[in-house]
């Protein structure tokens, strides 16, 4: 059976933009992804507030993706594919797009140079996903500049994916953050994202 790691933030966890709680199980995009793949299991590792590599010192847990990714690679090994969708919280915290790009590159480096300590170690394929853009809403922290930055993030991540030989998917093609809170997905959009990721994931698994 193929094993996939879905590594992300609250969008991967399944945050409901209305209640602040969590979407039903089948409406979380990693679950929807796994339901459409044959002989594959998806391990959902979504943490609310997670960034690529940037510290959030006021957070109650470690939010830096680079700090926890090695542990997850060990606990879920062996892996055939890692799907990374991060960047929204970096924007929210005021980090420039080129720093998000550099953070994603560091995560790819961690995966490819991880000491797997397996009989037949092999780095998994990697799919970089540009997060769904933010939406204007009543939250003053979701500024027009942040919305515009989120809309342009795919144009920064796609060249990185090409440079590093990773797969790429732009979530903006199927989903956008709800206007209810500006950055989380409606349940239907979360599920649609998982369904849309099936084809690029399958190509990487079978390539």
Please, how many helices? Answer: 9
Write down the secondary-structure element order: EHHEHEHHEHHEHH
The major beta sheet can be summarized as: 5 strands, parallel
What is the first-to-last residue Cα distance?
15 Å
What is the spatial order of strands in the main beta sheet?
2-1-3-4-5
Report the portion of residues in β strands.
Answer: 5-15%
Q: SS-based structural class?
A: alpha/beta
> What is the general shape?
globular
Mean pLDDT: 97
Helix content: 40-55%
Secondary structure: number of strands = 5
Question: Any idea what the radius of gyration is?
Answer: 16 Å
* Low-pLDDT residue spans: none
Topology, please?
Layout lengths: L1 E7 L1 H4 L15 H7 L4 E7 L18 H12 L4 E5 L2 H5 L4 H16 L12 E6 L13 H9 L1 H11 L2 E4 L16 H10 L1 H9 L1
Parallel strand pairs: 1-2, 1-3, 3-4, 4-5
Helix pairs in contact: 2-8, 3-5, 5-7
């Amino acid at each position: 059976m193929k094993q996939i790691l879905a590594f992300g933030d609250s969008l991967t966890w399944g945050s409901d933009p209305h209640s602040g709680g969590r979407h039903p199980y089948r409406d979380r995009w990693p679950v929807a992804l796994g339901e459409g793949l044959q002989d594959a299991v998806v391990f959902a590792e979504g943490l609310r507030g997670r960034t690529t590599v940037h510290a959030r010192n006021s957070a109650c847990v470690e939010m830096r993706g680079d700090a926890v990714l090695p542990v997850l690679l060990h606990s879920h090994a062996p892996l055939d594919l890692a799907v990374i969708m991060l960047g929204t919280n970096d924007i929210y915290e005021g980090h420039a797009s080129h720093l998000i790009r550099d953070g994603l590159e560091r995560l790819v480096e961690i995966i490819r140079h991880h000491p797997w300590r397996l009989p037949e170690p092999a780095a998994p394929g990697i799919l970089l996903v540009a997060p769904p853009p933010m939406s204007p809403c009543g939250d003053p922290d979701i500024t027009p500049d942040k919305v515009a930055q989120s809309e342009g993030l795919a144009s920064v991540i796609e060249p990185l994916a090409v440079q590093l030989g990773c797969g790429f998917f732009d979530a903006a093609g199927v989903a956008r953050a709800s206007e209810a809170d500006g950055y989380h997905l409606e349940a239907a959009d979360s599920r649609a994202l998982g369904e849309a990721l099936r084809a690029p994931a399958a190509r990487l698994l079978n390539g």
